[in-house]
Amino acid sequence: MKMYEIIEKLGRTERPAVSFVGAGGKTSCILELADDWAARGKRVLVTTTVHMERPEILGRTGWIDQPAENIRKALESPGVVIAGSGSETWEKIRGLSEAEYTEAASKAQAVLTEADGSRKFPVKVPGKNEPVIREDTTHILILAGASALGRPLDQVCHRLEYAKKILGPENRTLTGETLGQLLEKGYVEPLKEQYPGRKLAVILNQQDLLEEPEKMKRIIEARMSVPVFLHTREEKKKRIHLILLAAGFSRRFGENKLLYPIKGKSMYLWTMERLKKIQKEGLADSLVVVSQYEEILKEARRQGIFGVKNPHSERGISSSLQIGLEAARSFKGRDTEDYYMFFVADQPFLQKKTVENFLKDFRESGKRIGCMSYRKTPGNPVIFHNCFVSELMELQGDTGGKSVLKRHIDEVFFYETEDPGELEDWDTKKSTSTEK
Question: What is the predicted pLDDT for the residue at 436?
């Protein structure tokens, strides 16, 4: 069942203010509901009373550390506005002050609040002073992830000490019965007492992991005094956008190296045509070429490739990177997870198969940044998850994406190539007797 359908079942008020507590997918459920309501013309405020992921990491625009007036103005038209204040760590945001919240929420037709922290565990039992729920809340949705079922409690439960106060000290396997008991005693009973009149429900998320989801729902619901709903969020489609940077000045080369012939073909064409084949075969979703040279842009257009001019190449590679990124973002889908992969046009021996293998292994790695390397030395191309767009757009001068890569080294997947020649930049003329 979709999130908006769950709210309809519970009874939607004129101005719903929904607090999401528990564990196992609160943020994704919030964004799903927010997007559905925004698509229906509503002005939706998304915020937190604890911590939530920074909007950029979610692939969203946010109003962080903004005056309440700016947030209120953003809510004057339909859409989703994520608002909060900066946290001690860049990856997270905190909630608005009471005054900021009151002013901002006055323009919203719906408010969705992440009101509980779970440290990425699929199940939680709240501790003292948890969850943190505002008085204007109309609905409280208690989430749990189906991935926790059938596993030892100490592996899946946040605030384990409070869970053991309910179930006993032994470390038992989490079943539908024990999950229902934990949620009823840990959340439902205290919330009914503290927030009478609110609409409460439990959502068992990740129902696709269950062999018999309806049976599990009945088992959990038998232990509870509120309804239980099953929910699965469709996985976001991952989209790859290729960006070829072909705007350099070739100062050390002695002439425009990108037009220099290699085996009868201009240098830039070797990479551009390989990338076009990768896109045509469905391994990438878009291709953008950035150049200051009309000859390159004309050829890109002739081949049906989106070419954009960089009128400020003298500002360094950061300008080309950002122009290409802005163009590629126009291909972003409504509900997609987007990655931007940057190539340089002076690597004519970079092979199509190498790029394909890199993309395959990068997808499987689960990392959010990737680069090709030789003996652990980073090279080009480099790929970034959408959450790093804001950092890339802040680069200046001749500083490229590798500076962002180095700031997030734990996020990086390195794909080792066997042939260093594939990654070699042509800054000076070389022998071209052998095409690799």
Answer: 39
